[in-house]
Amino acid sequence: MNNLEGRGFERELQFQASRSGGAGGQNVNKVNTKVELRFQVESSELLSEEEKALVQEKLGNRINSEGYLQVVCQTERSQLQNKELCVQRFYELLRQALTRQKKRKATKPTRSSVRRRLESKKKQSEKKASRGLRGNH
C-alpha cells in the first residue's frame, strides 16, 4: 500500500485527449491538450477487494455510473504535461483513499480551558442580568 507507483497502475489507466478551453491562443482550437484519465475500479487486478471498497466509499463522487474513476486535467498547454498531471492526481487520490484515518482518543478538557469557559459564562450571565435592572423602574 505504501508504494502505489510501483504496482504498475499505468497499464490499467485509459487516457482520452480532447480540445480544452482557456489559455493557449489559436492553439486551443486546433490541439487536443485536455486529458481525461479513466480507471475502472471494480475490474482492477492491482487492488484487493478491501482496497476497492475503500476507494469506492471515499471517492464515490468521482466515480461515474460505469464504475470509472475520472481525473481531468486541462491547465497546461501541452498534452504531455496534462497527462503527467493527471497521473500525479490519480496517485494522490488513491493515496488519500487508502490511508486509514487515526482513531480520535477522547481526552478531558484542561483545567484552564474549564476555568476560561466558566468565566465567560459568568460574564455573559452578568451582562444579561444587568439588562433587566434598568427596564423595571
From TrEMBL:
Q: Which Gene3D superfamilies match?
A: 3.30.160.20
Family, similarity comment: Belongs to the prokaryotic/mitochondrial release factor family.
Instruction: Recall the GO molecular function terms of this protein's record.
Output: peptidyl-tRNA hydrolase activity
Task: Indicate what this protein is called per its UniProt record.
Answer: Alternative ribosome rescue aminoacyl-tRNA hydrolase ArfB
Q: Which residue numbers delimit the Prokaryotic-type class I peptide chain release factors domain?
A: 19-35
Q: Tell me the leader sequence span.
A: none
Question: Which parts of the chain span the membrane according to its record?
Answer: none
Q: What class of enzyme is it?
A: hydrolase
Region (Disordered) residue spans? 99-137
The EC number on file is 3.1.1.29
Q: Where is the composition biased (Basic residues)?
A: 100-120
- Give the matching Pfam families: RF-1
InterPro entries assigned? Pep_chain_release_fac_I (IPR000352), Pep_chain_release_fac_I_sf (IPR045853)
Keyword annotations of the record: Hydrolase
